[in-house]
């Protein structure tokens, strides 16, 4: 027995952590100079498989450290500690138009990681791995509570950090795809913010979008404000796409909503407040009647609002914004003219004398769906138009590596921005307790 040579060893540390935490992957006890492939496989809640892989060569000690060594091939290249996560893509033969999103935030995202002999690019599921490990990626840190909201006509979900509070609050709004999207709010609560993910689409049976009225969003803001764990004067608006436009509209025009700060990801101001909050259904109908497509027949919506209008009545009066606002802009956004909107907002705010409140983060080759870090780029995906129930594939834009860098950088700066403007002693991250 003493003559047995131990087999290869693959370790992932931490094996359990938040989705925005980096982990280390190390392979040991292999021959020096050996070609190996590290492979990640994840089964989504829709039962679709997503994979990523990198080609490595062991060092003189027969080891590979993903944080320190370069991938010479595969779904990512170079020294990319989290490449096995942000380069995940549907396995060959999968359904078209897939988007990877966590629906049950009370359970972890499981990523099965394996190491294989040689530089291979296919046949992983039939191959026998040299070693295996499982990484558990959570949106909810221990102690975070999920509480459903059904009051004042508002539907949503609170995510509450552990502890007595009071905590800063966030009203979290997603885009025109509708539904209740919770994972960003769960992650915000894991960093010490009470966050409410709110639902304001789809349409009701009569075709009326009762969620897109200013009173609906004002009610949602008040629900956050009145929560016993929330510091009532320390609430932020956080929106992506249509949610970003709603955030801008509320900050610019609502007499009842006074956020401490706003974070807006790839949205804009090219609707009047009335148009956005009352007539958006009709505007989306117009938008979907005719739109250009790329060579893959994926719909491109960004040009629908270009050129940026000069008529002030067609834009929100961002000169009235009185709180710090951060715009996160993907310069390859193919869904909305977010870069042009940011430029026009900056001009309008400068003329109004409140440009000191504006921060713009612009990311070359990043697309529309800038989300928490270490999650894969969704360049295009299926989309159900809420007004017509038509199914299209929308082009969101972005390239994998620049988009991954944008997500990591913007998330770090978002947390810093929120902590700066909503600061309390409870706002420190608690992910280390996982």
From TrEMBL:
GO molecular function, one term: fatty acyl-CoA hydrolase activity
Span of the signal peptide: none
Gene3D superfamilies referenced in this protein's UniProt entry, alphabetically: Acyl-CoA thioester hydrolase/BAAT N-terminal domain, alpha/beta hydrolase
Matches recorded under InterPro entries: AB_hydrolase_fold, Acyl-CoA_thioEstase_long-chain, BAAT_C, Thio_Ohase/aa_AcTrfase, Thio_Ohase/BAAT_N
Top-level taxon: Eukaryota
GO annotation, biological process: acyl-CoA metabolic process; fatty acid metabolic process
Active-site residues, as the UniProt record annotates them: 241, 333, 368
Ranges for domain Acyl-CoA thioester hydrolase/bile acid-CoA amino acid N-acetyltransferase: 20-151
SUPFAM superfamilies: alpha/beta-Hydrolases (SSF53474)
Positions of the BAAT/Acyl-CoA thioester hydrolase C-terminal domain: 213-423
Pfam families: BAAT_C, Bile_Hydr_Trans
Family: Belongs to the C/M/P thioester hydrolase family.
UniProt protein name: Uncharacterized protein
Natural source organism: Synaphobranchus kaupii (Kaup's arrowtooth eel)
High-level lineage: Eukaryota, Metazoa, Chordata, Craniata, Vertebrata
């Amino acid at each position: 027995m003493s003559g047995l040579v131990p087999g290869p060893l693959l370790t992932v540390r931490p094996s359990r952590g938040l989705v925005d935490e980096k982990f280390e992957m190390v392979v040991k006890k292999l021959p020096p100079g050996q070609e190996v492939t590290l492979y990640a496989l994840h089964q989504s809640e829709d039962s679709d498989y997503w994979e990523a892989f990198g080609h490595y060569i062991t060092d003189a000690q027969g080891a590979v450290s993903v944080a320190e060594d370069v991938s010479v091939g595969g779904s990512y290249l170079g020294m990319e500690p989290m490449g096995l996560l942000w380069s995940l893509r549907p396995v060959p033969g999968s359904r078209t138009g897939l988007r990877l999103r966590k629906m049950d935030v009370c359970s972890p995202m499981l990523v099965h990681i394996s190491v294989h002999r040689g530089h291979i690019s296919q046949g992983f599921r039939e191959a026998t791995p040299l070693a295996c490990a499982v990484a558990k990626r959570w949106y909810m840190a221990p102690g975070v509570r999920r509480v459903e909201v059904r009051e004042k006509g508002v539907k949503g979900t609170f995510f509450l950090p552990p502890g007595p509070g009071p905590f800063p609050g966030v009203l979290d709004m997603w885009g025109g795809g509708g539904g209740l999207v919770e994972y960003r709010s769960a992650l915000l609560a894991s960093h010490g913010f009470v966050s409410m993910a709110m639902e304001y689409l789809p349409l009701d049976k009569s075709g009326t979008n009762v969620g897109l009225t200013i009173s609906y969003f004002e009610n949602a803001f008040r629900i956050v404000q009145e929560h016993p764990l929330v510091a009532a004067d320390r609430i932020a608006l956080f929106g992506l796409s249509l949610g970003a436009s709603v955030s801008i509209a509320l900050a610019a025009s609502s007499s009842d909503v006074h956020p401490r700060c706003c974070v807006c990801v790839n949205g804009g101001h090219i609707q009047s407040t009335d148009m956005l909050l009352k007539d958006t259904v009709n505007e989306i109908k117009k938008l979907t009647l005719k739109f250009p497509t790329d060579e893959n027949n994926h719909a491109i919506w960004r040009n629908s609002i270009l050129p940026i209008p000069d008529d002030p009545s067609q834009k929100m009066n961002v000169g009235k914004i009185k709180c710090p606002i951060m715009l996160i802009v993907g310069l390859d956004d193919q869904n909305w003219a977010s870069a042009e909107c940011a430029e026009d907002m900056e001009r309008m705010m400068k003329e109004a004398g409140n440009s000191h409140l504006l921060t713009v983060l612009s990311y070359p080759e990043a697309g529309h769906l800038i989300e928490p870090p270490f999650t894969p780029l969704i360049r295009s995906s299926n989309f159900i138009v809420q007004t017509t129930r038509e199914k299209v594939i929308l082009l969101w834009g972005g390239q994998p590596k620049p988009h991954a860098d944008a997500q990591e950088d913007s998330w770090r700066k978002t947390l810093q921005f929120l902590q700066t403007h909503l600061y309390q002693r409870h706002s420190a991250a608690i992910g280390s307790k996982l």
